[in-house]
Amino acid sequence: MHLEGIQYIFGMGFPISLWAWRTLIGHPTVSPPPQGLLAGVNITSPTALVRGTAGKAALLSVRYASASADKPVVKWQLKRDKPVTVVQSIGTEIIGNLRPDYRDRIRVLENGSLLISPLQLSDEGAYEVEVSITDDTFTGEKTINLTVDSKSKKDVHEFFTLNCSHENGTKPTYTWLKDGRPLSNDSRLLLSPDQKILTITRVLMADDDVYSCLVENPISHGRSIPVKITVYHGPDEPAISMEPFSPEQGGFSAGEHEDVVLSCQAPSNPPSRYFWLHNGSQVHVGQTYILAAITRTQAGTYTCLAENTHLQTRTQATIVLTVYSPSPAWPRTPCCRRGLSA
């Protein structure tokens, strides 16, 4: 979160000044991907930091480039004191047995990306992917950091303090107003003993409002010009919806040649900027993505990436879209889940 406001104002009747300090504790930041690519297999990633939520899905998105037409050998490791092998595959086909804690939660996509669903808190950490192809001299490597928040976790980054004073008069009393309504002490709103200073701790979205102070004594009173406090926050975890609505485990389904509209909602201030990825590759910019007369090649994973350009923070959500071949029989038979291993 981040907040801004007017810093100096004058009151009515007799001068009143009100000013605010803000104390910045920290913002999540997205580090740019490491620069420089290896000869042989070159790996790129749209982001070096993925923020996920327990119980949801996370896509660690990469792309590789190679002159060879052979299938790649992909290896994902979770960096610990002793690295943990998450998965190894040839193309999308997983080699060997997955560890018990990864079974039914891990998929490798055609471009080498790793889909983890549902996330567990223990999944948090730095993930290194290696891609090697027989004809290439060097192995490509890339590291992506994954954070996993609990469902109830709230981000807390700042507090702010407002001070009210006056130039003339004796025996004043002070009253703080939010949107014209009096404030009193509670667990987050702290008033100094003389009521001149208001401190709001653990800033929330609800604190985005207009504040003023009222100064009174037995013979006079005055009220400050309101101060607008803006709370920058988000983006929240995206919610993906689809029309026509056809839910399926892990995502949605559609019939081939249907018109499909994917929408993404991630509350944020300022409003989120949205990016869509199909099987790990960016395909669209905007809150709504229209797939007219969808084909089987457009099946697979769709990730909505929401970005707060002011705070430089990002969140994402991923669903699986299954495309069915037209058939009079019911239930429909899926033609494919492009990019996903069986």
Account of the protein in words:
With 342 residues, this protein is mainly β. It folds into three domains: 2-27 and 155-232, Sandwich (Immunoglobulin-like), CATH 2.60.40.10; 42-148, Immunoglobulins (Immunoglobulin-like, Sandwich), CATH 2.60.40; 239-336, Immunoglobulin-like, CATH 2.60.40.10. It has strands at 2-4, 16-24, 42-44, 49-53, 58-60, 63-65, 73-78, 84-90, 93-94, 106-108, 114-116, 125-132, 140-149, 158-166, 173-178, 181-182, 189-191, 197-200, 209-217, 220-223, 227-232, 239-243, 247-248, 251-255, 260-265, 273-278, 281-285, 288-291, 300-308, 313-324, 334-336. It starts with a strand and ends in a 6-residue tail after the last strand.
Which helices and strands, and how do they pair?
Elements: E1 2-4, E2 16-24, E3 42-44, E4 49-53, E5 58-60, E6 63-65, E7 73-78, E8 84-90, E9 93-94, E10 106-108, E11 114-116, E12 125-132, E13 140-149, E14 158-166, E15 173-178, E16 181-182, E17 189-191, E18 197-200, E19 209-217, E20 220-223, E21 227-232, E22 239-243, E23 247-248, E24 251-255, E25 260-265, E26 273-278, E27 281-285, E28 288-291, E29 300-308, E30 313-324, E31 334-336
Parallel strand pairs: 4-13, 24-30
Antiparallel strand pairs: 1-21, 2-14, 3-6, 5-11, 7-8, 7-12, 8-9, 10-11, 12-13, 14-18, 15-16, 15-19, 17-18, 19-20, 19-21, 22-25, 23-24, 25-28, 26-27, 26-29, 29-30, 30-31
Comma- or semicolon-separated keywords:
342 residues, Immunoglobulin-like, seven-stranded mixed beta sheet, six-stranded antiparallel beta sheet, 31 strands, disordered C terminus
